[in-house]
Write a structure and sequence with these properties.
By secondary structure, the protein is of the alpha+beta class. The protein is built from five helices and six strands, in the order H-E-E-E-E-E-H-H-E-H-H. Strand 1 and strand 2 form a beta hairpin. Helix 3 packs parallel to helix 4. The longest helix is centred in the last third of the chain and has 19 residues. The termini are far apart.
Length: about 180
């Protein structure tokens, strides 16, 4: 038996040898470390401001609720629409959710928080207040950005109620079908 390759096959193997092969780690000498740090330092977008008195201001939104939040140094008092936090948010879940960004950054009892919130329901208002507080805390101290971002407090929840369509009872609910 002959192990010779036919002439057509030899030409195809020589062509494939001329095509460069993909290799990993090419261009790095052995023992040379590859830097994993980027050239530019990430600068977060600050969505809030400081007024001339040093009060941090942040705005939060959730569904149709809008919360305007002001944070300044103080004793830890939280006022929502002129009432205490416990009077405005009756559910423990909502109160914990509102104070979660402050607890995450370790500023509990050190800040006075004033909130004006309107629109939507209680849960939507609580979500708006959380975003407003997180944005105001970030304005106050930029080093809080990574803690607040990891906790998900700086992310706006953009889910909204689906609109009602014509010919239907609700957004997707149809009228009851009657066979006869």
């Amino acid at each position: 038996m002959s192990t010779d390759i036919p002439q057509d096959d030899q030409s195809s193997t020589s062509e494939s040898a001329a095509v460069p092969q993909l290799t990993l780690g090419e261009g790095v000498a052995t023992g040379e470390a590859v830097s994993s740090e980027p050239d530019e330092v990430y600068q977060p977008t600050i969505r809030g401001r400081l007024d001339k008195f040093g009060t941090a201001i942040g705005t939060g939104r959730r569904k149709t609720s809008v919360a305007r939040v002001r944070i300044k140094d103080g004793s830890g008092k939280v006022t929502v629409n002129g009432r205490d936090l416990e009077d405005f948010f009756r559910l423990e879940r909502d109160r914990k959710m509102v104070l979660a960004p402050v607890v995450a950054v370790g500023e509990t009892g050190k800040l006075d928080i004033w909130v004006r919130v309107n629109g939507g329901g209680i849960t939507g208002q609580a979500g708006a207040v959380v975003l407003g507080i997180a944005r105001a805390l970030q304005v106050r101290n930029e080093s809080f950005h990574s803690i607040l971002a990891e906790g998900g407090y700086l992310t706006r929840d953009d889910r909204m109620v689906e609109r009602k369509k014509y010919g239907l009872r609700k957004a997707r609910r149809s009228f009851q079908f009657s066979k006869r």
